[in-house]
Amino acid sequence: MVNDVVIPLVGVFAGTVDFSQLYINLSGVDYPSLAAAKEAGAATINYGTFINTALGFTIVAFAIF
Prior knowledge:
This protein is mainly alpha-helical.
């Protein structure tokens, strides 16, 4: 129910917010994207995926309770 009713409504109001491309590069070499850094095998901290997961959890938690 949450995925069918609540999440689409939140998506309409929030727009297309996507933090998944946010990362901290630990290798010292600049990469144009997270995909390029992963392809090169660079060490990264992918904090954008954590933000997406935390926001998704918070939205579902508020919808359920």
